[in-house]
Specification:
Pseudouridine synthase; nine-stranded mixed β-sheet; 11 strands; two-stranded antiparallel sheet
Length: 204
């Protein structure tokens, strides 16, 4: 599902949540809901929305200043030479392809991207990685891991040999830490993995 509507006209999570809040709170007028950050359409995991116009800029500021903590899980194939590492690339976004390309050094129109990963579990055909983002770029995890020969299961756009049946990819926004915009308390949210044999196997 899309997080926010686009030119496809497909339903979005933002619209679904607005309808839910309108019904739950029995609101007669329009419902305010601000989109703080996005996930790629085939990616699962935790998201945060702002329920007021006051909360939105406060949350946006945390993401802009990189004071949030975002942890992802990725199920990858490929040879992992280091069980943990920090990856630094320069990403070039190609909007027509809806894809980003990673380069080892700065090139025209590129943006610096950094992440760190550690190995959580090695399986027969895949390895579960925990990825912590240091920057927030378009398709950053997918592009940077691909540049290292690490292909996320089901991600045809970045090198997978076949898709997942439901169109998803095995990239999961596992954990998000923010400061509540009004209570000023640090809060951490953890999303369960999708119901899936491979994710289940990794949890055993």
């Amino acid at each position: 599902m899309l997080v926010q509507g686009d030119k496809t006209g497909d339903g979005s999570l933002l619209d679904l949540l607005k309808a839910y809040i309108k019904k739950r709170d029995q609101k007669t007028g329009n419902v305010y809901l601000g989109l703080v950050h996005r996930l790629d359409r085939p990616t699962s995991g935790v998201l945060v929305f702002a329920k007021s116009s006051k909360a939105l800029p406060r949350l946006n500021k945390q993401f802009a200043e990189k004071t949030t903590r975002k942890v992802y899980w990725a199920m990858v194939s490929g040879n992992i030479e280091k069980p943990q590492d920090t990856l630094k690339h320069y990403l070039v976004r190609k909007p027509k392809q809806n894809k980003s390309y990673a380069f080892p050094r700065e090139v025209p129109n590129s943006k610096f991207a950094e992440l760190s990963y550690s190995t959580l579990k090695k399986m027969d055909r895949y390895t579960l990685l925990e990825v912590t983002l240091k920057t927030g770029r378009h398709h950053q995890i997918r592009a940077q891991l691909c540049a290292e020969g690490l292909i996320i299961k089901g991600d045809l756009k970045y090198g997978a040999s076949r898709p997942n049946k439901d169109g998803s990819i095995h990239l999961h926004a596992r954990l998000l830490t923010i400061v509540h915009p009004t209570l000023k308390k640090e809060m951490t949210f953890t999303a369960p993995t999708p119901v899936d044999a491979l994710w289940h196997g990794a949890m055993e």
